[in-house]
Amino acid sequence: MIKFNCEGAGRPDISTLTEAIEALKTLKSKSGEGAEFTGWMELPGDYPKTEEYKAVKEVAAEIREKAQVLIVIGIGGSYLGARAAIEMLKSSRHNQEPGNPQVYFLGNGLDAFDIYQVLRLCEDKSVYVNVISKSGTTLEPALGFRIIREYMYSRYSAEECKQRIIATTDKAKGVLKGLADEVGYRTFVVPDDIGGRYSVLTPVGLLPMAAAGIDIDKVMDAAAKAQAEYSRESSDNPALLYAAVRETGYRRGKTVEIQSYPGESMRFMAEWWKQLYGESEGKGRKGIFPASCQITADLHSLGQFIQDGEPIIQESMVRFEEPAAKLEVKATEANEDGLNYVAGKDMNQVLLAAQKGTMEAHIAGGVPVMEIVLERPDEATFGEMVLFYEIACGISCYMQKVNPFNQPGVEDYKKNMFRLLGKK
Ligand code: PA5
User: Fold this and answer.
1) Catalytic annotation present for 94
2) Is 90 exceeded by the pLDDT of residue 14?
3) How far is the CA of 200 from the centre of ligand 1 (A)?
4) Looking at residue 204, which CATH number applies to its domain?
5) Residues 115 and 154 in one domain
6) Which residue from 190, 166, 194 is spatially nearest to 38, judged by alpha carbons?
7) Residues 123 and 226 in one domain
8) Mapping DSSP to helix (H, G, I), strand (E, B) and coil, where does residue 316 land?
9) Domain that holds residue 242
10) In 201-343, where does DSSP find H-type helix?
11) Overall pTM > 0.85
12) Per residue in 310-347, pLDDT tens?
């Protein structure tokens, strides 16, 4: 289970802790704003018992057997969770690994060069597509799907495309659902009571994860246990404590939370967290701005600001107790680079020293630092992290008296973009 350490930030105020417990009660009793979108809380226990879950695993096995490339089309909550899991568990270089289908994420922007590159990489390879959009109307994935559809039909017969294109969308409404039904693509459902950024443990995230070779049974099993653990109305519940400590920081002017993470394979986990917290909390001119910092790459860019800039930052530092790989630094006879002082140490000891050193420095610089200590980068930890962050997010939002499950602010750029594109 996740360990939460708040020594570097200080214990939360008693009143904030009491508020956090009340907010958790509101979340669990489904009596707060947006409660109709809290289906994700029961999901880990219930969903694996369904026929659809079985079908997700069957289709994933088919993709693993028949595809060399899986193109996953989706944006925001419709792609970040799957990408986070795949990179955390299979590394950011998973596409170079033989034996697994390569997984490319498209439709999460409007970058023609990126689409062009992915299509080039698909040449002579067997391609499957999973298009994911709950609303079925979001422009970026819809446009991406139009382009990829054209590509698929240029390579495969209509009958084959029906087999190779899988849509994950609403059970009844939206353009994507209509299109899928008309053509006869296989479909998976994004449940009505689960919004995009809370949907990673539905087919939205599970199908690409399983297709990439992740054991989703282990993810769901750990998530179910985490759901029970992080729902406890007690001050030693790490999710509740995390929500209370960051809220205490916020009330003291720490309006930015930087999640610092231990390397490239955790980058998309931080991106998933940023989207979850940014879209859930940032409302009514309130909220903690979520940012991220890779240890140590970003210490050579953001590090200066965190240490010495405007004092608005609190930090949550993510680290593993057990690494995914070990690599010992060897001594050299001549010590030509002067690095023999690290010889005999594992790279992870060096990383740990960097993390602890950073933590000490930031605390000395007035940044409250929380620690999120994870066991190891495996399926169970991923499942635990999802529930940990989702429950803490619900608590945080209810403490700030905002609806955790809507995103009214996202519509404004869309309206302007549609006007500029001449949409009627
Ligand atoms: O969390 C959310 O609800 C959003 O980030 C959505 O996931 C995102 O906007 C994509 O929406 P859709 O799946 O409807 O295309």
Assistant:
1) no
2) yes
3) 11
4) 3.40.50.10490
5) yes
6) 194
7) no
8) strand
9) 3-31+220-399
10) 203-211, 216-229, 238-251, 267-281, 303-308
11) yes
12) 999 999 999 999 999 999 999 999 999 999 999 999 99
